Amino acid sequence: MTKASPAARERIVAGAADMISRRGLNATSIREMAKHARAPLGSTYHYFPEGKQQLATEAVRHTGEWVARRLRRELAAGPVAGLRAFLDLWRKIVVDSDFRAGCPVLAVSIEEPPTDERPAALVAAADVFGAWEDLLADSLREHGAEHEQAAQLATLVVAAVEGTVAMCRAKRSTEPLDRTAEQLQALVLAAIKD
Q: Which pLDDT tens digit goes with each residue over 108-128?
């Protein structure tokens, strides 16, 4: 039996998030996720006895919290700083991966579920997007944006950045991200009263 190790489990989750961000969920097997994380397949099933969907759900939550931590830190300086950090984070991911990786949360969201049921990974993706929107909306409100405008703008930011990351991968260029960044920043500045 495999001894429980938070570091090993975390490595498997991070490796799964990376694989999903590159290949999508349906094109990635649990065996490939384990191999990518340099973990024995047996230990992967030890930590994730429900299999691929459980691991994918954890990978989505891991990514969500990883991004949220950065957003919280940068939003302390205001919504413009948070927006820039959000954009810079995704720019780094697409550039460092030579335009091969995107967002595993988006990847899970756009794939056809294997059954008519709503998989846990898809529910987790909705929760992650909602958490990012809430962080951005709260910061916008704290800096003078109207309640509903802040919510709408936060949704627009998350949607635009997620879509733009996909465009960057397709075009193998950061130009879509640069264009989107400029327009989103103008909208944020117009909404806040600082």
A: 999 877 777 888 999 999 999
